[in-house]
User: Fold this.
Amino acid sequence: MTDGALRPALLAPSFFPEVRRGGERIVRELADELVAHGHRPWLITSHPGRPSHTVEDGLEVTRNWRPPAGRLRRREVEDHLTHVPLSYLTLVRGQAALSHATYPTDALASTRWSARTGRPSILTYLGVPHRRGIATRRHRAEILLRAVRGSDAVTVLSRTAADAMRRWVGAEARVIHPGVKLDAFAPGGVRDEVPTIACLADPTAENKRVPLLVEAFLRLRRDRPDARLLLMRPDDPVLAARLAAPDGVELVSPGWRPEAVAEVYRRAWITALPSWGESFGIVLVESLACGTPVVGSDLGAIPEVVDSESVGRLFSGDSPEAVARALAEALELAADPGTATACRAHAERFSTQRMGEEYLALYRELLER
Assistant:
């Protein structure tokens, strides 16, 4: 610890190893940057087991018991509520300089603690708010409004999310892009000899539109019969068999280890993410950091990542033909010797170091008020 070290409390409903989504990863990488700067981040989270307090790679982690939520789920009440009272009690008993929640329900604990102590609270909203999503669960709109209005600052992952926060919630949010670890995701290795497209999106998620990508790939194969498509292997064996049925489709299981994921990007000529509603699109930045150009839809925040034709292509709509054209153009781009350098330089704008510095600046700004 250095002089002036901060002890921010990070609040999340769940954490590694129980859940490994984008939100948990952002928390881990932000904590890594805070530790690297000599600070003492403290994560308050929950899990189904006994309470515990550990130190994991410099991050203090308090895991409270998460009471069952079956009855609330059956009544379609907002998710991730049962642990909130315990998170609040943990905050009250601790010595945090500020509280940083990464989910609206956690912000209920965070803002109440802030009102009691006078210390700042922050909400990072990880998605893109919209009418249908807000109305999906009972009390979700009320919880989100309370979380936003009670927080001293709200951050989002993209300008797209900030615009939606302004439109649907009536609040201003600061944009802090998530980051990629540039040392873990870097050019290297051997690219496949045949034109290879990688898509490491969850094939079970409707918004990822993996079936659309498969249809487009089959059209691409008419002109590039040697092309190959790498997809994430789902847990469901029936779905896995269906995905792997077309010629040229290969299923991969890189897990969550950055080195294994980076190896897939390095093998590929291009990476594709045809999804809608993305709050950022970190998988595209990972691919660019490995020197591999990308293809994405022009929906959501993806155009904020793919904002230059020197690093990839965007497509409009939901026709397989439009996606196939973008894939073909991106494969041509991958053959340009200067593309890998351009992709890497583009990705360097989105480092975890930059993300950590921006959050530290926000912490200090709130503490000095």
Remarks:
- The CA atoms of residues 68 and 367 lie 36 Å apart.
